[in-house]
Amino acid sequence: MSAPTGGAGAADPGQRLGAALREGAAVLAAAGIDSARVDVELLAAHLTGGTLAQVRADAVLGRSAPDGLAGLVARRAARVPLQHLTGSAPFRRLDLAVGPGVFVPRPETEQVAQVAVDAARAALAERGRAVVVDLCTGSGAIALAVADEVPGVEVHAVELDADAWAWAQRNVAALGSAVRLQRGDARTALRDLDGSVDVVVANPPYIPPDAVPVDPEVREHDPAVALYGLGPDGLTVPRGVVAAAARLLRHGGTLVMEHAEVQAAAVRAMVGSTGCFTDVRTAADLAGRDRMVVARRVDGPCGPGVADSRP
Fold it and tell me: Has residue 304 got a pLDDT over 50?
């Protein structure tokens, strides 16, 4: 992605990189950004096409600041997400293209992907094949990570929103991935796979309507369709995902779905009440917070109306 540059925002001609980094970090810290120094270094690396290590070495060597750095710092101080300014977001082993219109993948979701990766590997070892479905895929982060880390797995990804789907399509193409991307409703998509899927993974919208995010980067820049899960508890969309998982999963297949820490008990109860899952448990993210539900599809029929179309 081409780097934003610009005019009044450009660094002063001849300004040294070290001074520009110090000034930029001070501006970002004053704007309330905890990662101020790293953010300004990443912006400089984006403009130069180098690495953080190269930027830090250039600062020590007294090299000039890249044009446009002050302009990007000003936009970051206005709480435009760093990933929107650089055009990319790291996720596990991948760098994903992101920008306005798609949810920026977060480090906490990497552990959700890990559970899906582990379950896919186990299915592949046991059965010689594995099918994984990522519902509400957004940028494609989880689906692409699974495909990258589990060679031989068949991965399907579903996204309804047109803008997010376009970003996912771009990432699938850029990475040369075999992920099969479908635009559609997570509740009804992929009916041809009913009863044959080994892993259903999802990071659906789950924020309740009255729990507006505090961070401006999230509140003002992540699309609302990717944040708010509908209903008074924010769990209307996750309920649809659970019902779809019950329909798609084979007996013994794994469901893993992200949720808010405060929703852990409610989501366990929701999954358990379907009668379609056993071994329902809450798992923690890398920070030790209760951020996902993991469950196994029961053998035999389950709750009425939940998976009626399942063979």
Answer: no
